[in-house]
Design a protein that fits this description.
GO terms for molecular function: metal ion binding. With about 260 residues, this protein is an alpha+beta fold. The protein is built from 7 helices and 7 strands, in the order ββαααααββββαβα.
Length: about 260
């Protein structure tokens, strides 16, 4: 059987190895379980009416409701066999039952993921792991005025989730729909990098073996900081309004083009 190795870049799987695919999904599911529990702890320490600094206009109540509806929508997606996010499912209960409802939704998605193996698509555990991790950070900011850290391998994988999947799903929407250029994204601590090619109506990302000589913009920095920038939790530009003073991500070249690889 081809080797499966957990490295700084996450789970490395030999091409065509289905058992390695299961190991990769198990890694994401473990992150979902861990980060989901941490989210509940932070949300429980906050007041439902507390503001969420990284989600302007949102309260903790809305954040908990949103994430649980995302988890429940993933259940529907897996059962329906789709690999694109469906409309958010279910309506949240009153405050007194909200966290119990959230925990129930988390357990449901974890159970469905386990039941769907070995035919579970990578899309769902990967997306749920990162949606939950980023929202855990949001909840901690609301509860403690400080967000916790990230595992570097998971953060790098979350950068990959943006450039490999999320941008592709938005390729037909402006401003991506009319963009053209190459953006190099580099995690300086894990060694992960992507060359993101933006063309009208199309986004693709490749993992270059060596550093490309030509690109139009570059984003580089520690994986955790790139994770927060690409998921819209840290500003790209110091003059952009934001809640954090961390400026460990370097942007060179066409800043407007670099900004297009963000989401959130």
């Amino acid at each position: 059987m081809p080797p499966v190795v957990v490295t700084a870049q996450g789970v490395s799987v030999a091409a065509g190895d289905s058992s390695g695919g299961r190991d990769r999904r198990d890694w994401w599911v473990a992150a979902l379980r861990r980060e989901g529990a941490a989210f509940a702890a932070a949300a429980g320490a906050a007041d439902p009416d507390d503001d969420v600094p990284t989600c302007p206009g949102w309260t903790v109540r809305r954040l908990v409701s949103h994430l649980s509806r995302v988890h429940r929508s993933a259940v529907i997606g897996v059962l329906d066999g789709t690999v694109e996010p469906p409309a958010l499912a279910a309506r949240p209960p009153e405050d007194a039952q909200l966290l119990a409802w959230y925990r129930d939704g988390l357990e449901k998605v974890l159970r469905v993921f386990a039941d769907a193996e070995p035919h579970l698509a990578d899309f769902w555990p990967r997306r749920m792991a990162h949606d939950t991790t980023v929202h855990r950070f949001d909840a901690e900011l609301a509860a403690y005025a400080k967000g916790g850290g990230f595992d570097a391998a998971l953060a790098a994988d979350g950068v990959g989730e943006v450039v490999e999947s999320m941008l592709r799903l938005r390729a037909a929407e402006e401003p991506l729909a009319s963009a053209r250029g190459d953006v190099l994204v580099e995690c300086t601590d894990t060694g992960d990098s992507w060359l993101v090619r933006l063309e009208p109506g199309s986004v693709s990302a490749e993992r270059p073996r060596t550093r490309p000589r030509r690109f139009d913009a570059r984003l580089s920095g520690p994986a955790a900081d790139l994770y927060l920038v690409l998921w819209g939790r840290l500003p790209l530009d110091p003059v952009e309004p934001g809640r954090s003073r961390r400026r460990l991500v370097e942007v060179t070249g066409d800043r407007a083009l670099a900004a297009l690889v963000r989401t959130g």
